[in-house]
Design goal:
five-stranded mixed β-barrel, globular, 9 helices, alpha+beta, 206 residues, single chain
Length: 206
Amino acid sequence: MLDFLRGTVAHMQTDYIVLDVNGVGYRVFCSNPYVFHVDKEVQIFIHQHVREDAILLYGFKTREEQTLFRRLIDVSGIGPRVAVGILSGATPQNIISSIQQENITFLTKLPGIGKKTAQRVILDLKDKLDHIVSTDSTHDHIAVVSSDQSDVSMPTPWVEAKEALIGLGYSEKEVDQVWEVIRTKVDQNDTVETIMKKALQSLFEG
């Protein structure tokens, strides 16, 4: 069973990257491929999912994401694709905090999660996530989830989207400028992928 791969990012699509490991290309599905950079060497934490008709690889930038993904797919009704969608919608800390606080409103805004699934996630995982993040980190993100996020000038998904845009070759100055253009169009519940689309559309039009 694979735990991680180290190699060079050879290709990138909206939902996966191709990782060149000693001349072998591995297709690795990711919640946000744009955090990786083409032609750069990276280490990616892996979950290997075996089906009757395929062996699929899911990749994560951090061990924390990998562990949370594995906890999520242990919940009845949540498969790898849904778990990846959940991770694309918020940081691991925010997801964990919302589960521990039984914040159904937050959870149901994540991709693929309805009210019944959110309740099942809380029931199954509420007491199983403490070890994934430190106490201080969890405390900080509980405050974020619980507070009114309307005053947050740069939501976490935008920070990830910014990193991804820079990885695509845009300068930090260009990315900061496009944020000023789209910030009023960004909803606090927008995912990284949604923000990326808005930013790229603005960059193409500009």
